[in-house]
Write a structure and sequence with these properties.
mainly alpha; Growth Hormone, Chain: A; 0% strand; 72% helix
C-alpha cells in the first residue's frame, strides 16, 4: 500500500481537513439521534429506565468488541478505505431500523444500534488520527475542538430534525396512555427518515472512497491486536489512564446528552425530544472556548482540570435541585422567548460546557510519546467510548431503585477521575 506522510500543516492539508470535518458531522448526527430516539422508543414500547438505557448500551458496547479489530482493518486497507467501510456499515444499520419499526420488536432495534456502533467505531478509529497528525501536537486540542464543533453542531441539529420529521404530529402524546393505532403510527414514522439517512451515508461512503484524501504513513506493520503491542502501549501510564479518562468522560457525556430527554419526558415536558440540543449547544460553546483559549492562554491539562471541576459543581446542583424551580430559565431563556424549563434540566444541559474540552484534551495528552504505537493507542482510546454503554446503564439501574434525578449521582466519581488525570495522570510517563 502506497502511503503519504502528513505531519505538518500545509496547503495540502486543507482538503483532508475539509473531508474529515464532514465525517465528524456525520458521526455527530448519527450519534446524537440517540438522545431523541431513547425517550421516543421508551414511549412507544413502554420501556423502564433500565430497558431504555439498553438503547444506548447496545450502541456504545460495540466499541468494546470492535475497536482493536478496527485498527487491524485500517492497517490492512488504509485509513481512507477504513472510513468508507465504516460508513457502509452505518448504512446497513440505518436500513435495519426499517424492519425494527415495522415489527416494533425491541431486540431488533438493539441489533440496529449495535451495528450502527460498529460502523461508528471503525470510522472513529480511522478519522481521529488524521486530526492529531495534521499539525503540531501542542495544538491538537484546538484542531479536535474545531471538529468537535461540527460533531456537536450536528448534535444540535439532529434532535431538531428528528422532531420535525418524526415527532411533530405527536406532541400531544406526552403523559397519555397511547392506543395501539397511535403506537403503530409513531413507529412507522421512523421508516422514511432512517431510509433517507442510510442512502445519504452510502453515497457519502462512495464519495470518500473516490476522494483525493491522502493516506497517513503506516509506520508499524505489526498486527493491531497483537498482545505484545497492546502490553507495550499500556505500559505508558499516560495512555492507560487516558483510556480510563475517555471511558468515564464518554459515560458522563452520553448521560448528559442522551438521558436528558427521558428525564424531561418524566417531568411532562412536551419538547423532550429536543432537549439533547440544549446540551449540544453548551458543548459547542465549550469547543469554541477551547479553540480560542488552547494553547494560547491555557494549557490542555489546565483546561481539563477546569472541565472536571465544572462537572462536579453542576452534578451537585442537579442532585440537590428542585424540579419545580425555574430560576435559570426565567433569567436566561424566558425573557428572550425561550422555553420555561426546570433548573435541573438546564444544569444537565450545562454539563455540555463542562464536557466539551475533555476529549480534545485527553486524546493528545494520552497519545504523547507513543510514536509508532499511535495507531494502536488511538484504537484503545476509541475503545474507551464503551463508557457510553455503561454510564447510562448504571444511571438506569440507580434510577430504577431511587429516582431519575438521583441516577445522576453516578457522574460524581467520573468527574473525580478526570480531575485526577488532569492534575497527575497525564504526567505519568513510561520510564
Amino acid at each position: 500500500m502506497t502511503t503519504e506522510v502528513i505531519d505538518t500543516p500545509t496547503k495540502s492539508s486543507v482538503v483532508p481537513m475539509g473531508i474529515v470535518a464532514m465525517l465528524f458531522f456525520i458521526l455527530g448526527f448519527a450519534t446524537w439521534l440517540n438522545g431523541s430516539l431513547m425517550p421516543y422508543l421508551s414511549q412507544i414500547l413502554k420501556l423502564t429506565p433500565f430497558q431504555g438505557s439498553l438503547i444506548l448500551f447496545s450502541f456504545y458496547i460495540a466499541v468494546t468488541f470492535t475497536a482493536l479489530p478496527s485498527a487491524a482493518v485500517i492497517k490492512k486497507v488504509g485509513y481512507k478505505n477504513g472510513m468508507a467501510l465504516g460508513m457502509a456499515v452505518m448504512m446497513i444499520a440505518g436500513l435495519l431500523f426499517i424492519p425494527a419499526a415495522k415489527s416494533q420488536f425491541f431486540p431488533l432495534f438493539l441489533l440496529a444500534q449495535l451495528v450502527m456502533g460498529t460502523g461508528q467505531t471503525l470510522l472513529q478509529t480511522a478519522v481521529n488520527p488524521y486530526v492529531v497528525r495534521l499539525g503540531p501536537e501542542e495544538s491538537a486540542a484546538a484542531r479536535i475542538s474545531i471538529m468537535g464543533i461540527l460533531n456537536k453542531g450536528a448534535g444540535v441539529i439532529a434532535p431538531m430534525v428528528f422532531t420535525a420529521l418524526i415527532l411533530s404530529n405527536f406532541t400531544d402524546t406526552v403523559g397519555t396512555e397511547l392506543s395501539q393505532t397511535q403506537i403503530d403510527t409513531m413507529a412507522n414514522s421512523l421508516i422514511l427518515p432512517y431510509l433517507g439517512m442510510a442512502l445519504f451515508i452510502g453515497i457519502l461512503a462512495y464519495a470518500v472512497k473516490k476522494s483525493p484524501l491522502p493516506e497517513l504513513s503506516n509506520e508499524d506493520e505489526s498486527a493491531a491486536n497483537s498482545t505484545t503491542e497492546i502490553k507495550t502501549v499500556l505500559s505508558h501510564p499516560n495512555l492507560a489512564f487516558g483510556v480510563i479518562a475517555i471511558f468515564v468522560y464518554v459515560a458522563v457525556e452520553v448521560i448528559a446528552g442522551d438521558t436528558i430527554g427521558t428525564f424531561a419526558l418524566s417531568l411532562g415536558v412536551e419538547s423532550y425530544s429536543v432537549m439533547t440540543s440544549y446540551t449540544m449547544i453548551c458543548m459547542v460553546v465549550g469547543y469554541i472556548l477551547g479553540i480560542v483559549l488552547i494553547p494560547r492562554f491555557i494549557s490542555q491539562a489546565k483546561a481539563l482540570m477546569v472541565s472536571a471541576i465544572l462537572g462536579l459543581v453542576f452534578t451537585v446542583g442537579i442532585l440537590l435541585g428542585d424540579v419545580n424551580s425555574f430560576i435559570i430559565a426565567d433569567m436566561l431563556l424566558v425573557p428572550f422567548g425561550g422555553a420555561h424549563l426546570p433548573d435541573v434540566l438546564l444544569l444537565i444541559a450545562f454539563l455540555g460546557l463542562a464536557n466539551a474540552i475533555v476529549w480534545p484534551a485527553v486524546f493528545p495528552l494520552a497519545l504523547s510519546g507513543l510514536g509508532k504505537l499511535t495507531s494502536t493507542g488511538s484504537a484503545l482510546l476509541v475503545m474507551g467510548i464503551a463508557g457510553g454503554a455503561f454510564g447510562p446503564m448504571f444511571w438506569g439501574l440507580l434510577s430504577g431503585v431511587s429516582s431519575l434525578q438521583m441516577g445522576y449521582s453516578v457522574m460524581l466519581p467520573c468527574y473525580l477521575f478526570i480531575l485526577f488525570y488532569a492534575v497527575k495522570g497525564h504526567k505519568m510517563k513510561k520510564r
